[in-house]
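Objective 1b: paired records.
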Amino acid sequence: MSDKLHIVGGGMAGSEAAWQAAQAGIPVVIHEMRPTVETFAHKTGNLAEMVCSNSFRSDDDEQNAVGLLHWEMRQAGGLLMEMADEHRLPAGGALAVDRDAFSAGVTERLRAHPLIEVSGEEITELPTDGQWIIATGPLTSGNLAEAIRAETGTEALAFFDAIAPIVYAESIDMSVAWEQSRYDKGETEAEQKAYINCPMDKAQYEAFIDALLAADKTVFHEGETAGYFDGCLPIEVMAERGRETLRHGPMKPIGLTNSHKPEEKAYAVVQLRRDNALGTLYNIVGFQTKMKYGAQTEVFRMIPGLSEASFARLGGIHRNTFLNSPTLLDEQMRLRSRPNIRFAGQITGVEGYVESASMGLLAGRLAIAEMTGHSLPPVPSTTAIGALVTHITGGAEAKTFQPMNVNFGLFPPLDGVKGGRRGRKDRYKAYTDRAKADWQAWLAVTAPTEEAGAA
């Protein structure tokens, strides 16, 4: 078998792939160019640094596809889910983490593993031999991106990923804002009060929309196109789609009662979610933006409760590249023209921290099998991980391929289950029950072992 598995990129996917391989006895080299070569969005040289948000989204493994993805990764001994659970913060029904502690924990575990080496050089060309996983994510360096384009013979698709601002908790006016999760969701008081809410009446909302639309925005360079992924739209782009769009999106007031004025119904509500374990930082939920810095402070301080807000980080925007995976990757996640190279993470066209990490987990296991002379049966498309990999390696329409979060629409339909909104709860439970049984069965026949890795 090949001597080592080389992984380019130490983000979510690369970190999880490295862990899976090393745990199976495969020596791993993680090639991570940070902090020697910096990116626009990253602030540290740690592995698995969280950039856009501190949330892994819903942790409900019975009614939510991403919660099911959490469950599958935990069952497979995923390092990132272990670290997420260890550094969890109150967030209602979501899994949010202290991002700095999470990243530091992942970095410590990987660097301490006797079979993992972390190398700091930038990989600029596609390797011709050895076993490789490219998991460079949305901020793939220009040199490597050009090498990928040259190999695939096509322009890499791109969209722009916007980052939400972070506010210092002490600068939020709690005589105006209040703590509450939507519908008081959560089993503990901390979960039920995981969000800070800032209410707006109609006049305040209209003035906010006017300011948002008029604010100075980042101008794209010639030749760039703003093909945003709908799950991460800049707030001003949403506002441009209609004045009521935000009030039915990230600023929806439903399920919230102002503890200061319980008899008054807010016209719109801005939510802030805890961003660290100390509770000193809060990110503005859904407020990714491409406004210029000066405009951001002016516009966001119009939000009731944030008139004196101090920002630990303002929003930003960066280019996000991904492959047209249905045409370029085989069912083993290998580049068809160079089968010694696998791709994993966001660069394959999945969207989200957990989705990226899950594709790293799978790519790692597929590489383990190939390096030890084994073959794995396909991951059942009835599972969350299987649904994602099936989508990106052939289930999606290549001509219209766009980044995708995990969702039940990717799963094979179930016979005899009621459709429509009224049947949704029973249908989702049936999806997750089927997925759990199929995932456990797949793990039972494919689980890597240290003995296999050493063979």
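Objective 1b, second protein:
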Amino acid sequence: MREDTTWLLPFIIVMLIGYFAWTTWLGRRGAVHSGSMKGFALAKGKISPAIVGLSFGTSYASANLFLGVPGWAYTYGLSTLWYTIGCFGVTWLGLLLFTKTFWRYGQKNGGSLTLPQWLGNRYKSKTLQVLVALLVLFNIYYIVGQNVGLATMFETVIGIPYMWGIAIGVGITIVYVSLGGAFAQIVSDGVQGLAMALVSILLFVSLLWTIGGGWNVFGTLHTELRAIDPALVAPLSTGGPFYSGFAILSIQWLLFSFVLLPHLMNKVLTVEKEEDLRTFTLTAGVSLFVLSVFSVFAGLAARVILPGLASADSAIPAYILEAFPVVIVALMVMGLISAILSTTDSLYLGITNSIGNDLFKVLAVPVLYKNKNLTEQELDGKVLKASKVSLIFIGLVSLYMSFSRPESLALLTNFGTSAIISGIVAPIGLGYFWKHANKSGAIASVLSGAGCYMFLTSSGTVEHVFQAMFFSSALGFVSMISVSLLAEAAKKREKTAQQAV
């Protein structure tokens, strides 16, 4: 740690206390809108579409883009830019293609609160709704990735033990999400997004004095990286995620499909009016660009000025300590903490909403309250309570799972998301454009896509997470098309047989 960081810990402690007070206040404000399951899950119409769009970008960014991907840049060099460029361009293209139709379908049948319910309503299948809700639980790995990122930040910058860093992040997030639901989560994400944008820009600008070279700063950075290892400036990397053209194509497919993840598509359902979708997608695109493009360059610069770090994921915290005065370091650390917590709260909310709305309501309520004749309001109250109780349970599970530090934060966060995408991309995509899509095909796609992904990764048949997701998604499409056509043909034969009788 630098000699002039005596006041860094007190600064950050004071700001953390202020942050906790602010988010708790937001939680109490949000409690007004969280008395029903709809208010807790979406806070629909209560928040400006611009803030919702900014929240989309901040929920997307996470510890992966601010710590994990710069860690890749530190290790593999310029080939990491394939991921960074895709995070903005390819992801935003996916958002533009999916948003309007997803929103329109979400308004039918009384409205959808979650992605599993959206699919259940689209295909008129409670079975599909439950299966996708179970798949959403894979986001626990994404939460663990955020916990690890936060703990790494605390440990590297101010020396707080790894375990304490995890406990602090889990504790803060659970408190304000349980109090204020979607309102607290989206508003806090919107404000945090501004802090994250400032951090991104500062990281980028700092290359002027850490690397030097003036207007030729990129040329200087390229020269310095080449001097360390020519492989760092190659378009492909050996032994990393970017080792071939097909590997990069698989990553772009992941980033295109990333918008379909439950904690992101729920933002679309929060928008009240269709005409507000334009504002939402524009704000989301701007925030995606600022939050995804700039920080990776600091990871590259860290390889030049801080060679030999024990953990590549600590490249950004270590770089900040080297590049900025102590007061700015404290402010930037809070910005990076915002990047982590802004995704964590979305993930917690998405998982717990699915547990309450898609699992408890569909599976448990018919058994537990079979003869109780509950009113709609009583039923809603019980589902809401189940969601909030599950929030504590998921928080404790993620805490336990975070105790073992992973080798790569970026790979951990993408493991769970790839499992979900493998199962849902075909039912959602074909559900938009293909008139023959039906529930039999959708169920087959979820089971085959997610099942194939789990087999390929657990057995080691395909070690590359992104390629496993690509193959599994392809199988999901094939399964859905073939089973949908077979089910449709069977239905026609049955109808013809009945008419003949």
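The chain has one domain: 8-409. The mean pLDDT is 85.
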